[in-house]
Structure formats: C-alpha cells, structure tokens
Write a structure and sequence with these properties.
This protein is an alpha/beta fold and 195 residues long. The chain has one domain (4-45, 52-183). The chain has six helices and eight strands.
C-alpha cells in the first residue's frame, strides 16, 4: 500500500508544513495523494515547546501528487501577498515541474488583473481573490459545473479539479515577478483575525 512517504509531500509532512488538513490521503485515482489545507511558508519563532501558527502561510491549498514521482503536477492556493510566491518556491523547490499547473491567488492584486508569472523555471497563473474561495474560483476557471461535483466526496472533488487543471491552457498577460511586485497593492488584513 502506498503512503505519503512515497510522494513529493513527504518532506513537507516531515517538516510539519502541511497544516489544518481538510483532506490528506490518497484520492480516488490509484497512486494519487491529495492534500487540502495550508502550507506553512515561514514559521514563527518558537519559545520553549509552545506551538505557534506560521508567520506566513499558503492557504486554501489544493494539491495532488503521484506515488513514486518527484514533482507536484497540480497546486492551487491563496496568499495575502504576491510577494509570498518567492517563499512558496523556496519551500517547494524541485517539487515544482515546468509541466505542472500552479495557481497562485494573491490577496493584494486588483480584482481585474490576471497574470502568468514565470518563476524558478515554472509558470504560475496568478489571480486575485476578493470574496470567493480558491475552490469556487477554480470551478469557474475550469468551467466545472457545481452540480457535477455534488455527489462526490472530498477526494473525488479534488480529483475532478486536478484533472481539469491538466487540460487548462488559459493565457493571461505574462509579466515578471519583479513587475508583479511593482503593481501589487497593499496587503489586506483579514477581519476577525485571531491575535
């Protein structure tokens, strides 16, 4: 039987970066492991043995990977700032593939802007996220009918979105990461944030 140790998620799991899992197990596709939750990008300084939430995280994450493979073919999530794309790439490193489909929702992009940003040898589709969720935005982006997913469990929904991402070929304006940093707005602090 396959385990997470046979996937590119193994080191992330060992480093305690896979947080608040809504789903963290094999999906309905043989050998495919799925994760929905958060990825810690920068840990807060810890004092003694207290557990502290990460200083910076990639939230509402959806990703899959196949047992025996070294790279992640599909990843999506949201960060407060486009600037955190750099941290995401540092954390994931060679787990990202030039052939992968990676969707980075940035909380400080104008809602009318969508870009393709090459970084670290891979390309990210970078989109704003205003009120909606990453899940709903991806359903719209991939033209997935919500009704088609109603009877599926969490693993089945993740498979459907990951499969749809594989054939996604939308073209957005391509800009550099540095250009993106110049046009991004201020970080919006979410309301009701725990202190």
């Amino acid at each position: 039987m396959n385990t997470i140790a046979e996937t590119p998620f193994a080191s992330l799991d060992n480093e305690n970066r896979l947080l608040s899992p809504v789903y963290k197990d094999f999906t309905t596709k043989p050998g495919r492991f799925g994760f929905r939750g958060e990825i810690a990008l920068k840990f807060a300084q810890q004092f003694s043995d207290e557990a502290r939430p990460p200083e910076i995280k990639f939230d509402q994450v959806m990703m899959v990977a196949n047992a025996g493979e070294m790279t992640i073919p599909f990843l999506a999530g949201v960060a407060l700032s486009l600037e955190h794309l750099k941290l995401l790439c540092e954390v994931l490193g060679d787990k990202l593939s030039p052939n992968g489909k990676y969707f980075f929702f940035a909380g400080n992009l104008d809602i009318s802007n969508r870009y393709q940003i090459p970084y670290g040898g891979v390309t990210f589709w970078v989109l704003p996220l205003d009120e909606a969720t990453v899940y709903n935005e991806l359903l719209d982006l991939f033209y997935i009918e919500r009704g088609d997913l109603k009877k599926l469990n969490t693993a089945g929904k993740l498979d459907a979105i990951a499969d749809a991402s594989a054939s996604f070929s939308g073209k957005f304006q391509e800009i550099s990461f540095e250009e993106g940093l110049k046009i991004m707005g201020p970080i919006k602090i979410p309301e009701n944030r725990p202190v």
